[in-house]
Specification:
Dna Topoisomerase Vi A Subunit, Chain: A, domain 2, 2 domains, 44% helix, elongated
């Protein structure tokens, strides 16, 4: 390391724990923080602490929120009978950017992956079943990622939910296979939603 000062080393090591940040990026970020005004560094530290203390899961859809229920679930202009099921909270942002979905969401917090010991019990599937049984849900749109785990999760959900008398659809594969919904552009997500099919 160029500078062996312990506080800098600790900051670099902390940045390296973030996804996609290697040694060079961590060092660059550490020096940026070091050169920035104290107020800016304090604002960054405060924002990190605030997000840890004030953000939780929505009691309805299990997305990240600072209010209960989240703003999407509380929006009376949205269709509560139409639920889009996604793997992770960032996937909601991708679907919302398309501007063509007016329903609500349900976040599974993962996908089925026997290799990683992630079964149905580790996901928010029973909570989704409870939502369907407890309200007037007309359609479930499964928008899991188009990879092996996402497809397995979609197939499992279709089998689990169809007997409940709800229409189950899957987004069309406008999203490239092997990619994550979070990184798809608005047009691709829009086509995928409009081209969804019955499962």
């Amino acid at each position: 390391m160029i500078n062996d000062a312990e506080p800098i080393q600790r900051l670099v090591e902390a940045f390296k724990k973030l996804p996609g940040i290697g040694q060079k990026s961590a060092l660059r970020l550490a020096y940026y923080v070091l050169k920035s005004p104290s107020e800016e560094a304090e604002a960054l530290a405060k924002a990190v602490l605030e997000v840890k203390s004030k953000i939780g899961l929505c009691e309805t859809c299990f997305s990240l929120t600072d209010v209960q229920p989240c703003r999407i679930c509380a929006d009376t202009d949205r269709r509560s009978d139409l639920i889009c099921v996604v793997e992770q909270p960032p996937d909601i942002n991708a679907v919302e950017k398309a501007g063509s979905f007016d329903g609500t969401y349900h976040v599974l917090h993962g996908a089925l992956s026997p290799i990683d010991d992630i079964g149905p019990e580790e996901l928010k599937i029973e909570e989704l079943v409870a939502r369907i049984k407890g309200g007037k849900v007309s359609e479930i749109i499964i928008a899991t990622n188009p990879n092996r785990e996402g497809e397995a999760t979609a197939a499992y959900l279709a089998e689990r939910l169809k007997p409940l008398g709800v229409r189950v659809t899957r987004i069309a594969h406008g999203v490239p296979v092997g990619s994550d919904i979070e990184y798809a552009d608005e047009v691709t997500i829009g086509f995928a939603l409009s081209g969804r099919k019955e499962m």
